[in-house]
């Protein structure tokens, strides 16, 4: 939890109080969270959460966050985390992932586009920090 809080502060502070929200969701036990670890050092994390309990929404999860340590970016760790979280989602019966990312967030947009996420909608003033967001989705069929 401390690790998620620390990296969330670095990665998401400009968008809102995610250094509080992400650890809260993690501790509530409602997420699947993966850490990327090299020689016992965590280098990043990815977190998903089911959207709902109804039958249709039960098969949809939201990618709440994916973040890599600033000094470790552009080395394939984001790719690895996104591949593994899709596999973890698939294993638990999830068929579709949705996410929001800031329109101005070019690294995030590049990562999600590379992995086949499709633009569904845009939302003005989505983040507490005032940034606009893109909502994206992907139907996952990976094993
Ligand atoms: C987005 C983020 C997780 C990417 O992690 P990363 O480990 O640097 O990503 P990778 O090295 O695996 O790169 C994977 C792909 O992401 C895209 N990408 C990564 N950095 C990028 C950048 N600076 N500009 C544009 N695209 C970028 C590219 O498509 C890249 O594929 P390529 O190397 O074949 O071109 C990282 O930049 C980060 O932690 N950002 C802060 C948190 C954030 O904004 N998360 C996304 C919203 S939740």
The CATH class: Alpha Beta
Which regions contain 5 or more consecutive residues with pLDDT less than 50?
none
Widest sheet, order of strands:
1-2-3-4-6-5
Coarse morphology: globular
Reported by name, the CATH topology is Aminopeptidase
Helix fraction bin? 25-40%
Work out the strand percent: 25-35%
Please identify which CATH superfamily we are dealing with: Gcn5-related N-acetyltransferase (GNAT)
How many domains? 1
How far is the N terminus from the C terminus?
Answer: 28 Å
Average of the residue pLDDT scores: 95
Strand count, sense and closure of the main sheet? 6 strands, mixed
Give the bound compounds. coenzyme A
CATH architecture: 3-Layer(aba) Sandwich
DSSP helical segment count: 4
Number of strands: 6
- What value does the Rg take, in angstroms? 14 Å
Class per helix and strand makeup: alpha+beta
Run of helices and strands: HHEEEHEHEE
Give an overview in words.
- It is a single chain.
- This protein has 143 residues and is an alpha+beta fold.
- The chain has one domain (2-139): Gcn5-related N-acetyltransferase (GNAT) (Aminopeptidase).
- Helix content is 31%, strand content 33%.
- The protein has 4 helices and 6 strands.
- The protein has helices spanning 2-12, 18-27, 77-91, 106-114; strands at residues 31-38, 41-50, 60-68, 96-102, 118-123, 133-139.
- Strands 1-2-3-4-6-5 form a 6-stranded mixed beta sheet, with helices on both faces.
- The chain is globular.
- The mean pLDDT is 95.
- The structure holds coenzyme A (COA).
- The site of coenzyme A has 20 residues, from strand 3, helix 3 and helix 4.
């Amino acid at each position: 939890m401390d690790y998620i809080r620390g990296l969330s502060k670095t990665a998401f502070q400009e968008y809102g109080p995610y250094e509080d929200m992400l650890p809260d969701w993690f501790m509530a036990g409602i997420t699947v969270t993966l850490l990327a670890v090299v020689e016992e050092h965590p280098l990043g994390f990815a977190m998903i959460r089911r959207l709902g309990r109804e039958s249709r929404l039960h098969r949809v999860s939201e990618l709440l966050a994916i973040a890599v340590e600033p000094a470790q970016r552009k080395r394939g760790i984001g790719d690895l985390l996104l591949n593994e979280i899709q596999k973890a989602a698939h294993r638990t019966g999830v068929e579709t992932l949705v996410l929001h990312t800031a329109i101005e967030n070019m690294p995030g947009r590049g990562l999600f586009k590379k992995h086949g996420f499709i633009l569904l909608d845009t939302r003005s003033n989505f983040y507490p920090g005032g940034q606009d967001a893109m909502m994206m989705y992907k139907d996952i069929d990976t094993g």
